[in-house]
Structure formats: C-alpha cells, structure tokens
Write a structure and sequence with these properties.
CATH class of the largest domain: Mainly Beta
Radius of gyration: 19 Å
Distance between the termini: 24 Å
Strand content: 35-45%
Structural class: mainly beta
Number of helices: 2
Number of domains: 2
Number of strands: 19
CATH topology of the largest domain: Jelly Rolls
CATH architecture of the largest domain: Sandwich
Shape: elongated
Order of helices and strands: EEEEEEEEEEEEEEEHHEEEE
Length: about 250
C-alpha cells in the first residue's frame, strides 16, 4: 500500500505539474492498462487526481476506487491548456468510461470546455465532463482510452483529507491482480494481504470478489461457521494491521 505524503493545493497533470485543489496524486503507468492491474483508491470519497499520459492511439489506463452505498460518486474529466491535447477536437480526445460494481457503464461525455486557472502551478485547465450521483456499494473502475497522443486528469471524490491507495502486483502488501471467475484462492495470493490495514484488506478482497471475514482482533477470537470456502479469506488483525490470512 502506498500513502501520499504531500498535501496538495490544486489539480495537476503529469510531467512536472504542481498539486492543486487538495487532490492527492495517482500517476497511471503503462502497466495500468487493464482494470485487473490498476491501482485501487481505498475511499472514493477522498479527493484524488488521477493522471493519464498517452503516447499513441488505443493506449489504455485504468483505476479503481471503493464506495459505500449512499455515498456520492463524483468524477471530473479535465485537460491542461497545453498542446497537443488542448488543440484536439472533442472527437479526438480520450474516451473515459466509469463502470459501477453492478457493471453499469457511465460514459463521461464531453459536454463543456470550461476554463479554470490554478494559481499555485500557474496553469490553465479545461473541465470537459462531470459526473455526480448516488453510489452503489463496491468497487468502481474508470478506464480511459486514447485516440491519439494526449494527456488527461480525472478528479475523483471531494473530501480534502489524506488518501491511500493500493498497487496491484504479486508482492506482500500489494493487491493480487484480479483473476476473472477465480475458483480457488491460493495461499500465496491470500498472504499478500499480510501487513495491509484492515480497510485495505477488505477493499482488496472486494476487488477480487473474495468473501472476507475476521477470525481474531487484538487477541480476541471470534466464533466462526465451520463451513469451508475456496473463495474466502479469514484474517487475523492486530492494531489495525493484517497479521495472518487463511483461505476458507
């Protein structure tokens, strides 16, 4: 899990831009080209600025974030007033799609080009599209697909507070790369939850469609059903950190 340590003052793009708006930065890499490999924002109500830089047509970048039922889904699509992106017609700009936990797709249709000056970085931006609606409970994803060389920023959330996110990978503390229709959780994948915070482990489990339950917390053992499930993780927690994980 990675933690942003810089308090930001405004939205920014990649490549040397300064932070703005109190959004915390997440830079999408070329490896984040599928939802399964994308980083996961632990709380989608917290302000994050997600940067995507595309070298060519059909480049893709994805990010995921967790929301609870009754919370607000809020996302904004922006570009920097800088060539080549700012000179592109709307039809040539990246296509950005939000997918809800239930699979509903929301296209971030470009319906404005409202200028915005960010005084800290002394840069001009354009708002292109905004989405704000009641959220489903679960893991959302956003995928951006380029039509040509360009760069975008996606603002997610609205609460100005410290934000955490998980990287996907195969190391302990990273969220396992999602496997479609996973029939059995291996011990090695389950043990990647060790050292995560309780929230991070829950979000990671949800992102992988794993059932999740707590067996013990700070020395107190809980009564559990005796059934066994290949797609469930049972965790032990001490001081808010996962110390042990069993499959079943």
């Amino acid at each position: 899990m990675r933690r942003s340590s810089v308090i930001l003052a405004a939205l920014v793009l990649l490549l040397g831009a300064r932070p703005a708006f109190g959004h915390y930065p997440v830079n999408l890499k070329t490896s984040h080209n599928t939802v399964a490999k994308s980083p996961i924002l632990l709380d989608g109500t917290i302000s994050f600025a997600v940067y995507a830089d595309f070298a060519k047509a059909n480049d893709k970048r994805s990010v995921r974030f967790a929301l609870k039922g009754g919370q607000r889904l809020k996302a904004e699509y922006l570009i920097l007033d800088r060539t080549p992106t700012s000179r592109l017609r709307s039809s040539s700009l990246p296509v950005i799609t939000i997918t809800s936990p239930s699979g509903k797709r929301i296209a971030m249709k470009i319906n404005e080009r409202t200028s915005f000056y960010e005084p800290y970085g002394k840069k001009n931006y354009f708002f292109l599209s905004r989405v704000s609606q009641s959220a489903e409970a679960g893991i959302y994803s956003i995928t951006a697909r380029a039509k040509m060389k360009s760069a975008v920023v996606i603002a997610i959330g609205q609460n100005e507070t410290r934000g955490d996110f998980l990287e996907a990978g195969s190391d302990v503390g990273q969220c396992p790369v999602s496997i479609e229709n996973e029939e059995m959780i291996t011990n090695s994948r389950a043990n990647q939850l060790v050292s995560m915070s309780e929230l991070a482990a829950e979000v990671c489990a949800a992102a992988n469609s794993w059932a999740y339950r707590v067996a013990a917390r700070d020395g107190e053992d809980f009564m559990l059903t005796q059934d066994y499930s290949n797609t469930r993780v049972t965790v032990s927690i001490r001081s808010g950190t996962i110390t042990k994980v069993d499959v079943g």
